[in-house]
Design goal:
single chain; globular; 7 strands; two-stranded antiparallel ribbon
C-alpha cells in the first residue's frame, strides 16, 4: 500500500527561545502558538554546545536553564503531544563547545566546554595538524568522530534522552568533521 501523504510544517526551537520561555507556562504558551500557526513537527534543541537543555545525568545542564529550575523538554514533549505536534530532540553531535555560546553564559571565550573539560574527554578532541583544538575560522571545539570513546559518550547522552522522554526522534546536527576545506588548509 502507498504511504499516506503527510505535510511536515516544522520549526527548530533553539536554545535562545527555550531560555526565553522561562517557565512551564511560558513553554506551553509557545507550543500553543506554534500549533495555532500550523506547526506539526518541533525540533527541540536538547543539546547545544555540549550542554543539556533539560535536567541530565550525562551532561552538564545549560546554566540558563538550570537557573530556571524546570524541565523544558518534558513540558515541550507533553504539550506538543497534546496538540498533535511531533517533538524531536535536536542534538549537537561532535561540536561540543562554542566560543560564542561561552560569552552568553559568562564563561571565558576560550573555555572548551563541559564535555571536554568536565567529562574528561579532552584526549578525544579533534586536533588540527598543528596540534590546535580550534579549527581555523571556526568557533567550535569538536570531539573526534574517529574516537570510539567519543562516539560511546554521545550514544549514552542520546540514550538518556530517548529513555527519559517520549520524543518522536533525534535530529543529529554537527554529525561530521568541521568543514573539509578548513581541515585541508590546516593540515
Amino acid at each position: 500500500t502507498p504511504s499516506p501523504k503527510v505535510e511536515g510544517r516544522a520549526i527548530w526551537l533553539d536554545r535562545g527561545s527555550i531560555v526565553k520561555a522561562a517557565t512551564p507556562d511560558g513553554m506551553r504558551a509557545l507550543i500553543r502558538r506554534l500549533a495555532e500557526a500550523g506547526i506539526n513537527i518541533l525540533y527541540y534543541e536538547a543539546i547545544n554546545a555540549g550542554y543539556a537543555l533539560y535536567p541530565s545525568q550525562q551532561l552538564v545542564e545549560n546554566p540558563e536553564i538550570k537557573a530556571q529550575n524546570w524541565d523544558p523538554l518534558a513540558v515541550a514533549v507533553d504539550e506538543g503531544h497534546k496538540l498533535g505536534i511531533e517533538v524531536h530532540a535536536w542534538v549537537w553531535c561532535f561540536a561540543v563547545g562554542n566560543q560564542r555560546h561561552n560569552v552568553l553564559i559568562g564563561k571565558p571565550r576560550n573555555y572548551v566546554g563541559p564535555v571536554l573539560e568536565d567529562k574528561g574527554l579532552m584526549s578525544e578532541t579533534l586536533r588540527m595538524g598543528s596540534g590546535s583544538i580550534m579549527p581555523p575560522r571556526q568557533t567550535e571545539y569538536w570531539l573526534s568522530p574517529a574516537s570510539p570513546k567519543a562516539r560511546q559518550f554521545l550514544v549514552e547522552a542520546y540514550d538518556e534522552i530517548v529513555s527519559k522522554y517520549q520524543v518522536d526522534g533525534l535530529q543529529l546536527d554537527y554529525i561530521r568533521y568541521p568543514f573539509q576545506r578548513v581541515l585541508e588548509q590546516a593540515g
